[in-house]
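thought: fold this chain, then report.
action: predict
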Amino acid sequence: MDHGLLRNSLACILPAGFTVGVIAELCAIQHALDPVYLAKTLAVFAAGAAVVLIGLPKHHPFASFGAANQVTVARGVLVALLAGLIGERGDTGAPALAVALATTVAVLDGVDGWLARRTRMASGFGARFDMETDAALIMVLAVLAWQFGKAGAWVLSCGLLRYAFVSLSLVLPWLRNPLPPSERRKAIAVVQMVALIVALAPAVPVAMSAPVAALALAALSLSFLVDIVWLLQNASQARATVSPQ
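observation:
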């Protein structure tokens, strides 16, 4: 890795790590969380930071880490704080804290992309960083919705469907073909975030939270189905084109 890029990225990531530790400790005190909340949060942030640093040299084409990626790191801090709530009791301040953290992450969604375009530092790395942060957010929200009894175990599918798709693509190469840009996918991602945040809200009863999450899962499943059918059709057409006459 270029040493300048490494220093520049660490200048953002290390203070973020210190910040996440301070906020986690304050949250633990304020919301009567388990003493291991700090350790869980720091472990999640460290794992995410390691993945980012590993991916930088191969996929980040600029000498500077960039303002857009700094915003995504800030979103990652909030996701780590949210992930640390996994395993916390629902009778503490954890559900309310989860809603506050997730809402902030969702509000910031799109800011990093806007900054990347404005500063002319859009890259495949930044887009993937943003997408994986969103995926992690949705997975954590799904786990918390199940953990706090706001929906059945089926709600985990909201987060697992993407990872299942990625895993399946390892054995089915045609699933790795690029998909055309789609506003539908962006809208569905926002729907997942908003629906799961609503489901998690302490004021929303299970009679409402479960149907809201179920509708979001149905929309996500349909979206994946549309993409899989498109990939399958295009893979079949490509094979037909190259087959001997």
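thought: worth noting. The chain has one domain: 3-242.
final: tokens above.
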